[in-house]
Design brief:
This protein is α+β, with helices and mostly antiparallel strands and about 300 residues long. The protein is built from 6 helices and 14 strands.
Length: about 300
């Protein structure tokens, strides 16, 4: 039997390695191809449309559907509770910082992962119309810029399932958006939390005006014959005025504020602030601090 030379042995060894490498490439190439198709870089809201956002509709499923509409007039963000049951919902000043955070988070470029391409899977991922929490961004004319349906969280990946209003595919995205959708993200989350709302105290250098916070928003009105227990008026450095009518109710107090913006505000901003009509509860301790604040004027 003829023995192989050392050179022939090396050549056979390299040929064997080449065949093995080819087999490995053929084995993993389809997998890599599928993996590249299953994920993509995108944003939930086109960054080019950020400046166009003038309305946001948020419908959260947390046992019952809660729907909030946020809208911008001039530079002032306002909100209404679309589930209030009132023929004319109360209009409250919205928290512009939380709204800005939602828009910025939605406009971030991120990697999303395809979970399913079938409409039949929507129910499984809780992105169907009956189960999903919906966030819709609109421009000033009501045209949809982005509408998203968020479902349950993937416990393994830590991401949340979602779909868009334009396609049937279900994807996973960062769960950072969940902080705007949970049960805590209700009226109290989206409304300006301060007794002296930030939209009214703009152009003012006074630093103590935004310390006091109110309680939950209330969809109630006092009887016509009922007079307020307290009435306070607050004048701000920027020329704005706030008047508070306060009614005792059980162990708390209901506050109905009236705001008059100062002369530095634009006509559009003045109209927005003048349209505010809401009421909220405060505790006896908050009332006491409010009374001290007026005493110090």
């Amino acid at each position: 039997m003829k023995r192989l030379s050392a050179k022939q042995g090396v050549l056979i060894f390299y040929a064997f390695d080449a065949v093995l490498l080819l087999i490995l490439l053929l084995t993993f190439l389809p997998f890599n191809k599928r993996k590249s198709v299953a994920s993509m870089e995108t944003a939930l809201l086109n960054p080019n449309n950020v400046s166009k956002v003038a309305q946001i509709k948020i419908s959260v499923q947390n046992g019952s559907q809660n729907s909030i509409r946020l809208f911008k007039r001039g530079r002032v963000w306002l909100g209404i509770d679309e589930n209030s049951g009132l023929e004319k919902p109360y209009v409250w000043p919205a928290d512009g910082l939380n709204i800005l955070s939602l828009i910025e988070e939605s406009a971030k470029i991120q990697k999303v992962f395809l979970a399913s391409s079938k409409v039949s899977s929507w129910n499984e991922f809780c992105v169907d119309n009956d189960s999903a929490s919906e966030v819709t961004f609109l421009d000033k004319d009501g045209a949809i810029l982005s509408s998203l349906f968020f479902g349950k969280e993937n416990k393994l990946s830590g991401r949340i399932y979602f779909r868009t209003w334009e396609s049937s595919e279900v994807y996973e995205c960062s769960s950072a958006i969940s902080s705007f959708l949970g049960g805590a993200a209700g009226l109290s989350f989206w409304s300006d939390p301060f007794i002296y709302p930030q939209c009214l105290t703009e152009y003012s250098r006074q630093k103590s005006e935004s310390i006091l916070r109110h309680g939950r928003l209330e969809n109630i009105a006092p009887a016509d014959h009922l007079k307020p227990d307290f009435v306070y008026t607050k004048d701000f450095e920027n020329g704005s005025v706030a008047k508070f009518s306060i009614y005792k109710k059980d162990d708390s107090f209901i506050v109905i504020p009236l705001f008059i913006p100062g002369p530095a505000f634009s006509e559009e901003d003045k109209a927005a602030i003048a349209s505010i009509d809401y009421r909220y509860s405060i505790s006896p301790a908050t009332l006491e601090n409010l009374q001290k604040d007026f005493t110090n004027d």
